[in-house]
């Protein structure tokens, strides 16, 4: 065992505090990573505050991890000491089921989350708000040269979560895509869709971030609070990606799709959607969801980002600012992702 520094939630209500945790010894197929940066995802807050069920306290969250390999087990073939690597939302799976064999480890019934999950050895996983992590090599991604570690960290969750639907619905040159909400996920969806050749419109509550949206490559930016948006853009889009967790008028959004178009939901509003049947039947439209992405797709996304010069827009903070950062995430006061500098942990 190795004792490492971390910031942990000790209850659903107390602020995160500095602590130490144990990391397992580097096993046959394990990689020890010295963490350089850990992104702050809204899921971290949900888990840390037991909003998605009771957490195992103390819990160290963080599933947008970028760093450098400092030790490898004797059986490791995919990574070497000194490699720049990342870890996302999963750290293990069964490796044998249909989902795993298809590279969709996120659907594996035995998939192990990066934090607050029971690992194969029975221990509870602890995430990236820490100086080091030990992960089995199959769940460690290569971060290509040319992609800085701070801007790469959020790609491990926000990047892959938006990349998956763009690929699944074959977004390419000439596709018309709308992105609902310009936050951590939305700002990645815009950049990735544009780089794939799509014409991208941002649909946001207000025009507050219009300049940013256009700078990220969107060609149009509309306020959903303005009713003319829904009449002007009727029947325009092949794909709508919603990144917001607020309740949405689904029928209004479905009306923006072309026949056979798809609206994919990445946000998790607490209330069920009200979906009028004919908003789907008329035009044979699809309402879908999407869950992160598999390991091969995550590597593909990182390679694509390096090739196209895409990264997350980040605000790097010292660990002692993490509680303040969580409050700012809740207030949507970040452009567009906080990243903890792990050297300050
Ligand atoms: Zn996340
Ligand atoms: Zn499996």
TrEMBL record:
User: Which cofactors does the annotated protein need, by name?
Assistant: Zn(2+)
Q: Give the domain of life.
A: Bacteria
Question: Which top-level enzyme class is recorded in the Swiss-Prot or TrEMBL entry?
Answer: oxidoreductase
Under the heading InterPro entries, the entry gives: ADH-like_C, ADH-like_N, ADH_Zn_CS, CAD-like, ER, GroES-like_sf, NAD(P)-bd_dom_sf
Give its E.C. classification number. Answer: 1.1.1.2
What does the record give as the reaction this protein catalyses?
a primary alcohol + NADP(+) = an aldehyde + NADPH + H(+)
Which Gene Ontology MF annotations are present? Answer: oxidoreductase activity
Xref: SMART domains: PKS_ER (SM00829)
State whether keyword Oxidoreductase applies.
yes
Q: Which PANTHER family match?
A: ALDEHYDE REDUCTASE
Family note: Belongs to the zinc-containing alcohol dehydrogenase family.
What's the protein called, per UniProt?
alcohol dehydrogenase (NADP(+))
* Annotated organism of origin: Janibacter alittae
Q: What is the lineage of its organism?
A: Bacteria, Bacillati, Actinomycetota, Actinomycetes, Micrococcales
